[in-house]
C-alpha cells in the first residue's frame, strides 16, 4: 500500500504529515519535497523522496497542418519535424526539449512517448497530441498540438500532347487538369524548368517541351502536373518509287517530317507500311496521314500497264487497245504494234490515242499481236496481247 507524507520522519516512523488527498494535492512551495511510503506484500517498508516540479508557463500551439495526396486524411508525421515546429513557436525556448504522447494519461505517466514517425490512423483528418516541454532539465510547460490533414488539389494525370509544327504560330491550350472549381486555386507554370510568370488555369502555347503546372489550394497544399508537348507535323512526300508492268506492281512512298504516319491507297484503309503491293495499272491516289492529327497529304501516282486483250466490237467496252496509267511525264510514249509474223500494223505516238484493231481501214481478225513501247527516258517494254472479236 502506498501513502504520501510531508516529512521523511512521518513517512518512515510517526505517520505525522499524511497527505490524505494525493490525487488533488496543492503544493506549498516551488520544487517542494514529499515522501512516498511503500509497503510490499511482506510488510517491508521503503521511503522515496519526490520533488514536485510544476509547469506554469502558458504555451498555446497553433495547429500543425500537412497535405495528403491520397485523400484518406491519414499521413505520416516526422516527429523531428514536429519538434522543430513546436520550438519555432514564440512561447517556447529555442533550447527546449519536446516530447509527444497520444493521451494525457501517457504524458502524466511518462508512458508510450512517440518517437520516429507518427501516423494518425485512429483519427483521420484531425488529431490531437499531448506535448511536454522541458528546458534545461526542468518542466517548462504542458500543451496540446492539433494535427490537421488537408487534401491536395485533385488533378488529372500527367499526359503527353502533340503540337503541329505545320500550324505554327497557331496555339493550343494546356489545362491544369484541376477537377474542382478552378477559381478556388492558384497556379504557376514552368516551361522546361523556367518560370513562365503565368498564373491561370490554362495557357496557350506553340512550342514543344515540358510544361509543369503547380496548383495550390486555400490550405497551401500544392501538387504538380507535367504535360509533355511533343512535336508532330503533316508529312512531306520526298519520293514515290513504282514497280510496274509486272505480275506484282508495287508503290513505295518515302516521306519526312516530325509525325507518325500511316498510308492509304485510293482513299482505302490506312496501313502502317509505306509499300503497297499487287497494285493494278492506272492512276492512283496516295494519302499520307499523321496519326497525331496534324493533317494528311495526297498525291497521284501512275502505275504503267499494258492490257492483255481488247475487244473492238463496237460495244464501247475495251474497243481500243492502249497503255494504262500513263503519267504526264511519259505522255510522249512511242508504241509500235506488229502481228505474229513481225509485220508492222500501226504506231501509237500519243498516250491519248490507241489502236482500234484495224489495218489500213480493214478490221483484223482475232489473233495475238506484239508491241514495243519506248518511254521518253529510253526505257523499253516488250510484250503481246490478244485481239478478241
Major sheet description: 5 strands, mixed
Helix content: under 10%
- Secondary structure tally: strands: 29
Distance between the termini: 133 Å
Question: Can you tell me the number of structural domains?
Answer: 5
Task: Compute the number of helices.
Answer: 3
Give a topology summary.
Layout: E1 2-5, H1 8-14, E2 32-39, E3 45-52, E4 64-68, E5 76-78, H2 79-87, E6 97-101, H3 104-109, E7 117-119, E8 126-135, E9 138-151, E10 159-164, E11 172-175, E12 186-191, E13 194-195, E14 202-205, E15 209-216, E16 222-232, E17 236-243, E18 250-256, E19 261-265, E20 275-276, E21 282-290, E22 296-303, E23 309-310, E24 334-338, E25 344-348, E26 358-359, E27 362-363, E28 367-374, E29 380-387
Parallel strand pairs: 4-9, 10-16, 23-29
Antiparallel strand pairs: 1-2, 2-3, 5-7, 6-8, 8-9, 11-14, 12-13, 12-15, 15-16, 17-18, 18-20, 19-21, 21-22, 24-25, 24-28, 26-27, 28-29
